[in-house]
């Protein structure tokens, strides 16, 4: 993610001039996140076609599913020889967190009418992160919409570009695209590794997967890892008043 | 055909979860343990996917050019490289090793 953010925050200035500047800063922040995310849409498009989806299927996936981690999981498992059921299950479990974002954003976004269906579709990591980083409800709403819609456009345009490029490249291994998929998963995991609990759960997930790959059918180790990870999270001791 | 089934089923479920966040009563979703599990699932899933994507070839575990790509990706992340650089660095590493016949 780009380092850019509002330069002058919380100066407490009043008036439309200051508010206008603040709103422009929110728009800039949202657009820079959209640009960065669009760039990795290229990786997704290229990997999607090399994992066996058609260009059209790759684009429809980005238009309809629209959640990076879930999309990478789906194509990773399909491309690795896993079943459709396992791929869909893993993608869905990864997408569960979007429901938490909706829960978090309901009071700010006040979903109503047809817009809530658009609102739901663009409720993802990036739009939520930019929204909750703002200091007032109108700026939060602005940040959410600029980021959500910006990422939607960028992600889909770049998925198409990546899919066409991937289609033209031919043998994915020759260009290291299988290693690129590994790198994409590491980059998605990286920002989560800031506390002991997610690190412990990631290690458990990796160990369970390594142990099970040789012994159970393809696609199932990832679900076993999710199950064991969920158990660890469920029974993880919580101290009173602990902030996540 | 199975590609379409995967694409459409996953999309419908993902959208249902997104809408659910705004419509399911908070008393259900906001329970501490449900929140804890939901927040931690990505760590377990992504770690598992890293192992699969890097070391699995069918039912076998192997060490090949992908592992070198992964190592380079971690280094790139340590020096705070952007996502696209991380991905390209890993791809170039693996492609280079294969072109040299080393992996």
Describe it:
By secondary structure, chain A is mainly α. Chain A has a domain at 20-172. Chain A is 73% helix and 0% strand. Chain A contains 10 helices and no strands. Chain A has helices spanning 16-50, 55-64, 68-79, 84-109, 115-121, 125-132, 137-169, 177-189, 196-212, 220-235. The longest helix of chain A is centred in the first third of the chain and has 35 residues, at 16-50. By secondary structure, chain B is mainly alpha-helical. Chain B has a domain at 63-103. Chain B has 5 helices and 2 strands. Chain B has a two-stranded antiparallel ribbon. In chain B, β1 (56-57) and β2 form a beta hairpin. In chain B, α4 (65-78) packs antiparallel against α5. Chain B starts with a helix and ends with a helix. Classes of the chains: A mainly alpha (244), B mainly alpha (103). The interface between A and B is large, with 103 and 77 residues.
Largest beta-sheet details of chain A = none
The helix-strand sequence of chain A is HHHHHHHHHH
Oligomer: heterodimer
The rounded distance between the terminal residues' Cα atoms of chain B is 34 Å
